[in-house]
Amino acid sequence: MKGIALILSLFVGVFTYAQNDVKIVKQGDMYKVTYFHENGKVAQTGFIDADKKMQGTWIAYAPTGEKKSTGEYKDGKKTGTWYFESNTNSVTQVDYGTDSRVASVYQLKSDKSQLADSDTEE
C-alpha cells in the first residue's frame, strides 16, 4: 500500500493543480482512484493496477463538474481514442497509436455528445 500511496502522490503532482483529496478503493486486483477539486467535486477518476499503472477508462472533470476529457489507458499509456473539451465548448478527438504517440487529431462539432457517449463509468 505504501507503493500505491507514493505513486498516487506523484499523480497528484503531475495530473492536478487544485486537488486536495484522493479516494482509493480496492476492486478485485485493481484500485479505483478518484481525485477531488478543492470544492469537493470529482476532478478525475480511473483505475490503477497492482503494478501502479493506469488502466482502463480515465475521466477528468472541471471544477464545475463538466467533463473535460475521457479516454483509455493500457499499462500506464494512453491508447485508443480520447476526447478533450476546450473552453470554447468544442471537442477534440485524439487517436493514440503505438507507445502513446498521437496518430491523429480531429476537431469535432461544438457539442459534448462525444464526451457524453464515451462515459462508461463514473
Automatic annotation (TrEMBL):
Which controlled-vocabulary keywords does the entry list? Answer: Signal
Instruction: Please state the span of the N-terminal signal peptide per the UniProt entry.
Output: 1-18
List the protein's name: Nicotinic acid mononucleotide adenyltransferase
